[in-house]
Amino acid sequence: MTKILLTGANGGVGRRLRRLLPAFYPNLRLSDLTPPDDLQPHEEFVAADLADLAQVEAAVAGVDGIIHLGGLSTEYDWADILQSNIIGAYNLFEAARKHNVRRVVFPSSNQAVGFYPRHRRLGTDVTVRPSSRYGLSKAFGEAVAALYADKHGLRTLCIRIGRVHDLPEDERRLALWISPRDFVQLIRIGLEHPDIHFDLVYGLSSNDRSWYDNTRAYELGYSPEDRAEDHREHAMAEQAKLVRNPLADRFMGGRLCTVEYSGDLERSGT
Ligand SMILES: NC(=O)c1ccc[n+]([C@@H]2O[C@H](COP(=O)([O-])OP(=O)(O)OC[C@H]3O[C@@H](n4cnc5c(N)ncnc54)[C@H](O)[C@@H]3O)[C@@H](O)[C@H]2O)c1
Ligand SMILES: O=C(O)[C@H]1O[C@@H](O)[C@H](O)[C@@H](O)[C@@H]1O
């Protein structure tokens, strides 16, 4: 039976996927720095720091596919991003190669292209414009995925996630939202679709206001069950509680673009 490793299993998305994935992948191994508080007796857990190749190899040994959620999920100091996301992503793919893992799904982020202004519509062939050191690390992860596909035959799907959550949390996330079950559908494409070599898709549910052209996901058979606009009222009510930030509102990456910003507004993201 296919054995799948879920890294970052103790995080926000990981906790949601632990509930949804066993229906498709009953033979699931979880990994993170520390185990979830509510680890169940039937769940297998292997602790591993992504920055430590030997630990990552121990977590990866014996699996057929990996969903790599582990790592820092927002902006941090370079030293931290370097360890968890840059060295961590490299270690994950290198361990996969050494242990003959066939498939890796890499959750990238809209933050890899976060400095594009919102009037643009992006396909998957645009130059990266990271919002932050975090976004930069996601662009690096996409590049590592491409290298290991082309050089070593690992089949990889990168999913530039908008925002995985139960509901869209504000106006920006209304344009970016993907429900956990639609995210699982994209993961299954990454782990199972026969045509995957190196592919890149956007992680969005059905979305009328999207900034992205997600043709490749639909070509691969993606058929989202959820629609962001159905939750418009909730998102806009949440938005009304927030203070507007004109710089954040200009770019797809929102507030992460504003962190430590000292750029030229006339030129940023153009
Ligand atoms: N939540 C979203 O909507 C969203 C959007 C875009 C991309 N992503 C990506 O999806 C993944 C999961 O996101 P999340 O919201 O669950 O993040 P999260 O921060 O809640 O969880 C990440 C997990 O990774 C673990 N981790 C961090 N550094 C590690 C290390 N050095 N070694 C081992 N484990 C380490 C953490 O302990 C944590 O449990 C992340 O890679 C994130 O960048 C998430
Ligand atoms: O852009 C966003 O809103 C999201 O981007 C993802 O990469 C981050 O992991 C998440 O924390 C953000 O909420």
TrEMBL record:
Sorted UniProt keywords: NAD, Oxidoreductase
Recorded family membership: Belongs to the NAD(P)-dependent epimerase/dehydratase family.
EC number: 1.1.1.203
EC top class named in words: oxidoreductase
Domain of life, source organism: Bacteria
Name of the protein in its database record: Uronate dehydrogenase
InterPro entries linked: Epimerase_deHydtase, NAD(P)-bd_dom_sf
SUPFAM superfamilies membership: NAD(P)-binding Rossmann-fold domains
Pfam families per UniProt: Epimerase
GO molecular function annotations of the record: uronate dehydrogenase activity
Domain NAD-dependent epimerase/dehydratase intervals: 4-163
